[in-house]
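Record type: monomer structure entry
Structure origin: computed from sequence
Chain ID: A
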Amino acid sequence: MFLHISKPGFRSWVAIWILSVLLLWEGIAWILHFFMSPQQAASRLPYLHEVLTALFRYSGTLAEQGAVTFGNAAIGFMGGTVLGLLLGLLMSVSVWVERTLSPYVISSQMVPVIGLAPIVYGIIHNAEWARIVMAAYVTFFPIIIHTLKGLKSAAPEHLELMRSCGASLPARYIKCLLPSALPGLFSGMKIAAPLAVTSSIVVELMGAPDGLGVLMVSSLYYGSAQTGMFWATIMLSIGIGLISYLAISLAERWLTPWQPEFRAKGGRAA
């Protein structure tokens, strides 16, 4: 189940959720500072205002390194989306193609990202390309699964009508199958976008020269002196993933207005 920004009350729900998280954060931080020394409490969970101060103080560095991480993740995400879409289309051509490729597609996801990242980085010896490859790796699988599911959801009577009218295979895909697959494709993209950012950060933790992962490692190295910086980096990473998700949700609303959740009660697009 995914959230849609067009649903009534979505903004109110988001505001309540954010306020609840912030209050919970401050409450836990206060409890920790009450029972521990300031250094010990800050190393576990600093006050929110300290993190926000670090966000403002190091905004230039965070923006620069965040752009590096997001840029590589975005390139890998786009590449993984194209690869997943093409493989999904190929697997939809016939049952034997799907049965042949499915074991390889599933097996490719058996290696965890934290274990594969150092292998890829060690082979490529290039942090930028390693981040792109890992982002594409975590992207193409959900794209394949959801695209294939969307292609199979096409109405059989519509396909039969097109066959009876002598429509070619490309025409059936363009006019019937691909529109049916778009909602599934966007569902896969919304799952993959935050994962692409996370995988890029994992590669950076392995010794990349730049990126948010490098800031995390350096902040941990300095201990409580850079706790605010560490948590600011975490918040920025979450923000990038959330923005990616919302951007794809907006594109989905624009490109697939026929979906029921995007329509008003009268039947028109909301």
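Annotation 1: The chain has eleven helices and no strands.
Annotation 2: The mean pLDDT is 85.
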